[in-house]
User: Which sequence fits this backbone?
């Protein structure tokens, strides 16, 4: 059963449709990342789900229950949505224990003090902070505070946990390990997760599916590999990863370009097209007689990016393992290999 079901959801602020006819279904236990550029409507969509905003049109179901429709909206506390914000939003004057116990809410007040303490300790254990319940937020690192915020969000056993850029306040050095840790905790808890991010790497590495947003619309919701290899349009192709677009045509299921040909994905349609060639499909071999020249080079440790200017002045990116590094200014022959590739007619 779907935990979260958005149908044609729209929210306007004056002339701006911050969320525009967005539809999305998130299965129970699924981890979905909401990815898109600044201002595309990610936060507004999350606020509609949490109940901080009411939609102008469309419907929203959580755990099978309709929680919002045009002109109707259940208040946040009746939605079973847990929220984690980038600034943690912990109560500074309450201990870690008290912060988490706050998340247990009214419904649980009937529990005995002992039961509540046991539940708080179990949550602290879940987020990897056993025994730190008596501390105050200022006595914890940013990463630890974020884990307390997660424990508080999980306390009332929400149907879905929404995280809004939860790692942006965390030291970049720590962020990668921190997010892997938090993702593991969420998966361990079997929670349905909606993560808002503008960081494509974060979305692609953590989520089961990525919902890509642009101008208030969800343009594609798909597994990370699918989003990368089969984007719905050139904008999506360029937003997720690096994209080379080569002019070409489709013949016999192959995408034919001036640099070579590759098998085409969904080749139907034939004729002239723009071919999406990801940089890792562009191989370079030094060749004095070739007219393509390496004009820029970025070393990334495990791989290396070369920007190559072709004889006609157009430029393409090549991304290869770093043992295939080519000197700046070198003339190179280009070979395309790999695929299949997406084509846009
Ligand atoms: P960011 O990644 O920068 O946080 P976002 O994708 O979360 O951006 P939103 O904050 O949802 O985007 O904003 C979407 C659009 O709606 C923007 O054009 C924004 O200016 C507008 N908007 C959001 N909230 C309001 C509001 N309360 N009043 C007026 N306009 C708003």
Assistant:
């Amino acid at each position: 059963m779907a935990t979260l079901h958005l149908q044609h959801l729209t929210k306007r602020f004056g002339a701006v449709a911050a969320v525009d006819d967005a539809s999305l279904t998130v299965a129970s236990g699924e981890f979905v990342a909401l990815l898109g550029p600044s201002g595309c409507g990610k936060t507004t969509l999350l606020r509609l789900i949490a109940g901080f905003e009411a939609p102008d049109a469309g419907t929203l179901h959580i755990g099978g229950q309709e929680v919002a429709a045009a002109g109707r909206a259940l208040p946040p506390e009746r939605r079973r949505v847990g929220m984690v914000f980038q600034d943690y939003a912990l109560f500074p004057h309450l201990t870690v224990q008290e912060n988490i116990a706050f998340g247990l809410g009214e419904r649980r007040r009937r529990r005995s003090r002992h039961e509540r303490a046991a539940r708080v300790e179990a949550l602290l254990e879940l987020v990897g902070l056993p025994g730190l319940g008596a501390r105050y937020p200022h006595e914890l690192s940013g990463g630890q505070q974020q884990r307390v915020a997660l424990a508080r969000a999980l306390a009332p056993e929400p149907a879905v946990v929404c995280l809004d850029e939860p790692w942006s306040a965390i030291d970049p050095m720590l962020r990668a390990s921190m997010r892997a840790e938090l993702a593991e905790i969420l998966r361990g808890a079997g929670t349905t997760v909606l993560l808002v991010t503008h960081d494509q790497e974060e979305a692609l590495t953590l989520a089961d599916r990525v919902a890509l947003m642009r101008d208030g619309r969800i343009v594609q919701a798909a597994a990370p590999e699918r989003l990368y290899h089969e984007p719905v349009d050139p904008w999506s192709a360029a937003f997720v990863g690096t994209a080379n677009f080569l002019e070409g045509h489709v013949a016999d299921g192959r995408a034919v370009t001036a640099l070579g040909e590759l098998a085409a994905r969904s080749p139907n349609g034939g004729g002239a097209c723009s071919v999406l060639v990801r940089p890792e499909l562009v191989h370079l071999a030094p060749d004095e007689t070739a007219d393509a020249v390496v004009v820029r080079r970025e070393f990334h440790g495990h791989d290396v990016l070369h920007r190559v200017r072709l004889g006609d002045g157009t430029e393409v990116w090549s991304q290869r393992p770093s043992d295939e590094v080519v000197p700046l200014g070198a003339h190179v022959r280009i070979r395309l290999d790999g695929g299949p590739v997406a084509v846009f007619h």
In short: The first helix runs from residue 42 to 50. The pocket of adenosine-5'-triphosphate is lined by residues 13, 16, 18, 36, 38-44, 198 (CB under 6 Å).
